[in-house]
Design goal:
The protein is mainly α. It has 16 helices and 4 strands. Helices cover 52% and strands 4% of the residues. The strands form 2 sheets. Strands 1-2 form a two-stranded antiparallel sheet.
Length: 317
């Protein structure tokens, strides 16, 4: 019988109705800091979504293996404890699984690709990713760029009220665009905004993170991707030209992302009919931005990077 079931059985309500309202959690003393820290740290094992958990009590992020605790709490035996009969059974199961496999199942595994990496992130690691992501984008003043990117996912009022990246991510979590079991939007955001150094930083701390350069964009629309690339192509001089052209009175925009969002609100940029806006940009002689809007300078963010891009891309820093 597993440890958890044994403890639960000992706390079963009595005939008189006592011991009600008790909740159970799988917790252990942290292996990483228990020998060095004066204040012992308790790790919550949760539902064992991962084989390792992180600890930062020693000043650096370290990981601890929890597979043996999973066997203990679930009442499972290791291979060495299982005996010959269970070995034979496991071999038979593997044999049956092998005979039932086919090209279709292999194709399904291949199609899952990087998206499978977005599932089953333990809550401590999810919070770590969220904190690092928020600090990274706030430090680089990219909040408005994220607001433009998420404009199809969040109401305008929510976007306006968000004063930092954490508030923006919390709003995405409230609407389940982002969860601890699906970090796809995190990965796509890093790829589209080309913040690959953030991916490396997170990977160094939690030990597992997909190659975001090869993530296939699925949650962000082509129109959002185009507007972000359009913004990337604008210079400060381009921004001033647009400010004068599209506004009777010059506006005090925070940055070019604020300008683009304002033009969307004024319906100067309209996804259903982009041609009038393109004509205006042509009139301002903004050659590179026009090429982006017409799809002639696309960075092809919607699919995996080419082999040439992989070879020429600098290492993550």
């Amino acid at each position: 019988m597993s440890v958890l079931l044994t403890i639960q059985k000992s706390f079963e309500p009595s005939k008189d109705g006592g011991r009600r309202g008790i909740q159970y959690e799988r917790c252990i003393l942290c292996d990483v800091c228990s020998d060095t820290s004066e204040q012992k740290h308790i790790q919550n094992l949760g539902d064992f979504h991962a084989e390792k958990l992180t600890c930062s009590k020693t000043g650096t992020y370290m990981s601890m293996d929890v597979t043996r605790y999973k066997r203990l709490f679930e009442g499972k035996r290791s291979r060495s404890e299982a005996g010959p009969s269970s070995n034979a059974e496991s071999k038979r199961s593997r044999s049956e699984a092998g005979s039932s496999s086919n090209p279709e199942s292999k194709q399904s595994r291949s199609e899952a690709g990087s998206s499978s990496n977005a599932e089953n992130i333990p809550d401590p690691n999810f919070e770590l990713i969220k904190v690092n992501c928020s600090e990274w984008y706030d430090h680089r003043s990219l909040l408005n760029k994220l607001k433009l990117l998420y404009k199809d996912l969040l109401p305008t009022g929510v976007l306006d009220e968000a004063s930092n990246t954490t508030e923006l991510l919390n709003s995405l979590m409230d609407r389940e665009h982002l969860t601890s079991h699906d970090l796809t939007l995190f990965y796509e955001t890093i790829k589209v905004t080309e913040q690959f150094g953030l991916a490396r930083k997170i990977k160094e701390k939690i030990g597992a993170f997909p190659n975001v350069r090869d993530i296939v964009i699925s949650k962000l629309t082509p129109h959002r991707l185009m507007l972000v690339e359009f913004g990337d192509s604008l210079t400060n001089k381009d921004m001033q030209k647009m400010n004068t052209h599209f506004n009777e009175a010059k506006q005090n925009y925070e940055d070019k992302w604020h300008l683009i969002m304002d033009l969307e609100e004024k319906n100067k940029i309209c996804e259903e009919d982009m041609q009038p806006f393109i004509d205006s940009i042509k009139l301002l002689q903004l050659i590179r931005p026009v090429q982006v809007l017409k799809g002639k300078r696309s960075r092809s963010k919607a699919g995996p990077s080419s082999n040439a891009e992989k070879l020429s891309a600098p290492g993550l820093q």
